[in-house]
Write a structure and sequence with these properties.
The complex is a heterodimer of chains A (about 350) and B (about 350). With about 350 residues, chain A is of the alpha/beta class. Chain A is about 40% helix and about 20% strand. In chain A, the strands form two sheets. A six-stranded parallel β-sheet of chain A has the order 2-1-3-4-5-11, sandwiched between helices. A six-stranded mixed β-sheet of chain A has the order 7-6-8-9-10-12, sandwiched between helices. In chain A, helix 2 links the parallel strand 1 and strand 2. Chain B is mainly alpha-helical. In chain B, about 70% of the residues lie in helices and about 0% in strands. In chain B, helix 4 packs across helix 6 and helix 7 packs antiparallel against helix 13. Chain B is globular and about 65 Å long. Classes of the chains: A alpha/beta (about 350), B mainly alpha (about 350).
């Protein structure tokens, strides 16, 4: 027999063998549109868990919620950093038929979840750190990142106007960002700038874009150029590339403020303050509510912030504690005021 | 003029291919044994679950289509005695231009728009291959290097453009706006992504096989690839054979990129090709550059990818298992290819 034909026949035979060995229920699309109770919870991580505080909290919060309901299947699935693959991987998770609630966290995810929900109407989604109202399959909760930006902005303003050894008289703060995106453009940057201006309207903000989330060398170059221009405190929003900001700032003796959880240990003496999100609590509470049968959350897009305790500041870092007491007092008063609604940052839409 | 047995390219039937396949599956099995908490469940998830659900199986078939086209492009250039390492950039350009063309023409009838988008993708891939083809034909430049360098430059430019001027400002994804729904690949078996793309890939494989084995030009091309001096002495159109296979290969890669862009995402997302050019080379090598074997080889690769994804979802195994398996296929297939080339060189 022709070897090519033999190969085709062999391939067909293997395919048929596997298809006959493999047994599985029908596709999830044939299930009822709304499940009576969730049988499986999958955490979809658009990246990797290890080394990412926000995703570590996501997984931990969902796990605790799932463990509180006996018999619930639970899995954490890492989708990696390539955004182009997220839709396929999210759809594969839905197609597996093992899960009916997918929990995730990223501003980009709601649009992908909405697309998957069209094909898998029984699937339900909870997306933290995102905003999409009106989709009956999706519940989102957005952190008021105007407030989060304000917190680090206010501290940065105090630092650049201080007499700290690394501060100069230029009254310039900087941001090194991986890329622009709506949440950053509409929330984080305006919040950061508002914090700076609340300290001194004369403080200016310089922003540099790395172009990706991983190039620490490029971010270090941008940081050095900012410092050359008089910037003495920088907020990196750059994922792995943020390491370049920290190393360059440390080398030049200037400062950084941190946005992504407790980061003092990443650059002791350089990071002077860290805004924190209580993502674990948020995910635990919301997933817990969904698992206990609260279907009214689907379709809702909530915004949470400092007044509810989901956004805050980590005061336990040695570098923060070493700041002059007057500076810390001013900052902590501003933090207290923010928690009580002064200034008030409202988000009506994105 | 029919090629005899000695002219047959090494493919699935050979022991080298069996070694590559065995190594890939063996590596996957070892990985699962080492990493899985429940190896039995992980084995079922990796090896069997891709066939357990019609939707998963349909997606497996769909995702084989684009790499299959890339592999056909690789095989065609290989027949002309060259190697196209620029598949990644050619596919990326194809995906991006197909979307841009359709965003610029939002009111065409759906099928015409889709056909136009796919044609634009093929054109873009060919355009990226053009400098290499011209330098090969006119200057005798090394295609291996030029295709790679041009491709890398294109990837960098498109990465920048999609994150910058082409980006959808309303989306948190780094992506262009979405094209009209009518321009997207029609889904044949929802909720899966299955479209006509696998049929298109199979048709391309059949057409390339018929061309290479049954047409005068195809046989001349093969002879040119094996012995250019002989081709010159026979009066073949050698300048053409040093030019258009690379252009056609670029077009196939561009078409693959357009299929990716106009499929599930409906837009060009940064990094959308995800190594498809390299997978195309692996598939072509595994199939011994025989168009008849390229589709099954592409399905095998798709099975590895789907299996690793399923194992990740159902058994908590890292998706790296699929990457390791594919890397081993490439390693063994390349070793076999080099061995074959060396034997030919010393014969």
């Amino acid at each position: 027999m022709n070897p090519v034909r033999r190969s085709w026949i062999a391939a067909a035979a293997v395919l048929a063998l596997f298809a006959s060995c493999a047994k599985g229920p029908d596709d999830s699309s044939s299930r009822p549109a709304v499940p009576a109770a969730f049988k499986g919870v999958a955490v979809f991580v658009p990246g990797v868990v290890s080394g990412s505080p926000i995703y570590e909290m996501l997984a931990a919060g969902a796990r605790r919620a799932a463990e509180s309901v006996p018999g619930t299947t639970f899995r954490v699935v890492e989708a990696g950093f390539n955004q182009a693959e997220w839709l396929d991987k999210l759809a594969a998770l839905a197609a597996s038929g093992e899960f009916d609630l997918i929990v995730t966290s990223n501003p980009a995810l709601p649009e992908l979840c909405a697309k998957v929900a069209e094909s898998y109407p029984a699937m339900r989604f909870f997306v933290a750190d995102a905003y999409l109202p009106g989709n009956p399959a999706i519940h989102t909760v957005l952190y008021n990142q105007l407030e989060q930006g304000y917190i680090v902005g206010y501290l940065a303003g105090l630092i650049t106007t201080s007499g700290l050894p690394g501060a100069n008289r230029a009254k310039k703060a900087g941001m090194v960002i991986a890329q622009t995106y709506p949440t950053l453009d509409k929330l984080i940057r305006p919040g950061f700038e508002a914090g700076l201006k609340a300290v001194d309207p004369g403080i200016s903000l310089e922003v540099r874009v790395v172009g990706n989330w991983y190039d620490a060398n490029r971010s270090a170059e941008l940081t050095s150029s900012l410092i050359d221009g008089g910037v003495d405190v920088i907020l990196p929003i750059a994922g792995g590339a943020g390491q370049g900001v920290l190393s360059a700032s440390k080398e030049r003796g200037t400062y950084a403020v941190w946005f992504e959880g407790k980061g003092y240990g990443l650059a002791p003496g350089t990071i002077l303050g860290c805004a924190v999100l209580d993502q674990e609590r948020l995910v635990r509470e919301r997933v817990g509510a969904l698992l206990s049968g609260d279907k009214s959350l689907f379709g809702k897009a909530d915004v949470v912030g400092a007044s509810e305790g989901y956004i805050g500041f980590d005061p336990e870092g040695d570098a923060y504690k070493a700041l002059p007491s007057e500076l810390r007092s001013r900052f902590e008063k501003a933090l207290t005021d923010l928690r009580t609604g002064s200034p008030a940052f409202r988000i009506d839409s994105l | 003029m029919k090629p005899g047995k000695e002219g047959r390219r090494p493919g699935f039937p050979g022991s080298g291919t069996a070694l590559a396949l065995g190594a890939a599956l063996g590596a996957a099995a070892l990985y699962i044994l080492a990493a899985a908490e429940e190896p039995g469940a992980a084995f079922r998830a990796f090896f069997l679950s891709p066939f357990a659900r019609p939707t998963v199986l349909a997606n497996l078939i769909e995702q084989a289509a684009a790499p299959c086209l890339c592999a056909l492009g690789t095989a065609l250039v290989f027949r002309s005695g060259d190697f196209n390492l620029g598949g990644e950039g050619q596919a990326y350009a194809g995906g991006a231009l197909s979307v841009l063309a359709l965003l610029a023409a939002p009111s065409l009838p759906g099928p015409a728009g889709l056909a136009g988008g796919l044609a634009a993708g093929a054109f873009a891939g060919a355009f990226v291959a053009l400098p290499s083809a011209l330098s090969r034909r006119n200057l005798g430049a090394d295609v291996l290097l030029s295709t790679f360098l041009v491709s890398q430059a294109v990837v960098l430019v498109l990465d920048w453009a999609i994150a910058g001027p082409l980006r959808d400002p309303a989306s948190n994804l780094i992506a262009t706006p979405v094209v009209e729904a009518a321009y997207r690949l029609p889904r044949l078996a929802p909720p899966s992504w299955l479209s006509f793309a696998p049929v298109l890939a199979a048709a391309a494989a059949v057409a390339l096989d018929r061309f290479l084995r049954s047409s005068r030009r195809g046989l001349e091309l093969t002879l040119f690839g094996r012995n250019p001096d002989f081709a010159v002495s026979m009066g073949f159109r050698v300048r053409a054979y040093a030019f258009w296979p690379l252009l056609a290969s670029g077009a196939l890669n561009g078409l693959a990129g357009a299929l990716l862009a106009l499929g599930a995402n409906g837009r060009a997302v940064r990094g959308m090709t995800g190594g498809i050019g390299w997978n195309g080379i692996s598939i072509a090598l595994l199939a011994g550059n025989d168009p008849r074997l390229i589709l099954p080889a592409a399905l095998f690769f798709s099975w590895l990818e789907t299996g690793s994804r399923q194992a990740s979802i159902l058994a908590g195994i890292s998706v790296d298992v699929g990457t390791v398996a594919k890397a081993l296929v490439l390693l063994f297939a390349t070793a076999r290819f080099l061995g074959t080339a060396r034997r030919k060189g010393t014969a």
